[in-house]
Amino acid sequence: MRSVTVLFTSLLLGLAAAKAPDMSGRAEVTFGVAVDGALPVAAADLALTLKGEVGSGYFPDAAYRATVVAGYDAATGAATVALDEAYATIYLGKVELTAGKLRRFWGSTDGVNPVDVLNPRDLSFPPDGEKLAVPLVHAGVYADDVKVEFAVVPLFTPAVLPGAAWRPALTPRLPPGMTVVGVDAPEVNRPAAELGNIQFGVRGTLDLGQFDVSATYFHGFRSQPTQSARLEPTGTPGQVRLQPVLNYDRIELLGLDFSGTVGDVVLRGEAAYQITADPDGTDPATGNHALQAVLGGEYLIPGGPRTVVQAIFDYTAPDAGEAADTAYKLMLAMMYQPNTRTQLDLGWIQSLDGSGLLMPAVGYSFADGVTGEAKAYVFYGGDGSEFGDWRENSQLRVSVAYAF
Amino acid sequence: MRKLVNQALAAILALTLLSAATAQRYATADDLMSAVEARPEPKTTEATLTMTITTAGGQTLTRTLQMWGAGDDKRLIKFTAPADISGSGFLTITQADGSEEKLVYLPALDRVRRIAGGQQGDAFFGSDFSYEDITGIDPDDYTHALLGVKDGPTYVVEATPTAASGSVYDRLVIDVPEASLVPVRVEYYRAGALVKVLSVSGLTEVAGYTIATERRMESMVDGKVSTFTVITQSDVQLDVTLPDELFTERYLRR
């Protein structure tokens, strides 16, 4: 907290040398329609950003940025006005110190980033999963070929969880002859705001020119809860109520990622191992150890699209007496600009269980700062498969945005 | 027969005009390109660039960017307008072994991405320039042949990329006036067809150097201009002190 005080004091002292602040913004209208005829989104959003610098030169004494977002979604009736990001950075030679509410990206691969754990995600529309800004103090130390980052997240912020249409049904194992007669409101065990729950991480990057490698350590919590359920007696024999429990597991994360150029191909890889407080898998309310690894490459097809192919491997350690959960997915992303105004994108995730998600998109620049996009989200697969249960959520979204 | 005679006369006339202009200083293409390469160049460059992209329908998109360069080895470009791409940046560093490190910063994702050399044929932020075009012509990456000499004199040189250059083009035809030794027109051929034409104008003296303030790249389809992009330079500063920290991932994302 003292670092924050120092930061803002230095900003105030430096106001005499400040450049005029710059105001910018973005207005966006989004409309969506699902395959079942429902309207998942009919929203208008406005984001206003104020940013500026204190001091002068290539690296000024300090810089600041704040963004406020206001939105209304007619499909859900939700109206929001929120401070998105608000942070300041001071430049101290080879050290940068940033504090406030912000986002920071850690990782090397595209789309799926196991080591990118500083910011939770808004999963209300899971395919997008936008990152949420959180209170964060970040320090970067830049030597010649080495960068070391330190991050402290003083307050835990959970991910915004998917709505009912995206949640799997709870299917607890019931003793013979037992019937569930109701489901109670979830019991949420969220880390309290206390010293022992402060999250922190450190990341080191070695840049060798055509190749870079990073190692990451994070001590904190999973931003998505482990979901379990207790059976609560009702007083009537053979009948129980279901008590869902959402537990945000404490984790230690060890991560490794790299990117490098080999000929015309950029190779990227990323892996993270999460260690939880339930190594034996005996506590159903606590998640187990887990590993996620991503390996892939990017290549520009001559005269064609920039193409990214990645293999994704997920492993979750087993509960006591059970088998481990493993999952394999392939991801394909293609980006192509046939002319100055048009952008064609294709995203495709294929699980080895036969289900998948296809996301074709067309973008168009109508004028300077005025862009439009139409994007389809097509889920497919059988019942109980990774993406198959979301078939009814397949939808088309159309948006128009003006940036100023 | 009369037509053939007329064509022959026209060819002789053209050769005569060319020979009249051959009071030339450089006898071979290699001599010329060596002189082009030896032309004094600033150690560092800082400038504001305005990039106007004109579509086939005549509509325009305008981007403003800030550019810093140190020799041929380091180049940094950051977009300042329009708002939807403001903050995006592009950093190229040529390593001691000749390999290039290319990084793109995309502020919407808050991440720096490495891109491969094979992607130098990609359009530079949606313009008619590719990353290869922006990086410029390194004479060492080409073999040269003198095709002729026009009035001025202006030399017409054919440049054929070496296999090691990684160029997406088959050959370039370059016009180089003897007076400035600045290539003022470049035709780019791919698969035997003319695909782009670069015109360089607004040559001016800044701090003792001859620089071009305007570059126009036309994309050609069936011999006709389909779209074109004009990049104009302003606020040009040469030989200013640029710190090494400028050409880093750190500054790219700042």
Structure notes:
The complex is a heterodimer of chains A (404) and B (254). With 404 residues, chain A is mainly beta. Chain A is 3% helix and 56% strand. Chain A is built from one helix and 24 strands. Chain B has a 13-stranded antiparallel sheet. The radius of gyration of chain B is 20 Å and the shape is globular. Classes of the chains: A mainly beta (404), B mainly beta (254). Chain A binds chain B through residues 24-26, 58-59, 63, 96, 103-105, 107, 140, 142, 147, 207, 209-210, 212, 259-261, 263-266, 298-300, 302-303, 306, 337, 339-341, 365, 367-369, 371, 401, 403-404, and chain B through 53, 55-56, 59, 61-62, 81-84, 86, 93, 95, 99, 101, 109-111, 113-119, 121-123, 126-128, 166, 168, 227, 243, 245-246, 248-251, 254.
Short description:
The complex is a heterodimer of chains A (404) and B (254). With 404 residues, chain A is an all-beta fold. Helix content of chain A is 3%, strand content 56%.
